[in-house]
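Revision sheet: structure tokens.
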Amino acid sequence: MVRCLKSVHAISACPQNDSLATLLARLEGILGPVPEWMLHRGRYAHRFYTRSGMLYERASGNQRYELLLPKRTTLRHRYDRAHRVGRSWGRGRGC
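Predicted:
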């Protein structure tokens, strides 16, 4: 997974996100679900994942929780899309 994340950074295709939970959703969409062992051993996994492995975040402005369903995509698709619209997600953002 770390090697894939380095590849994302290397081609300047880091996605823009509103929160850490949406970043995780985008990464899951590209890389697939986070392995169960990572969720069980992750120090902060409980802040983003339910016990059953569903990704969630607190809705802004209220106390409700929203499940985030990652949209399946590929790194190639994200990269091509970023360059087609003339912007690079990684530049100047410390991504």
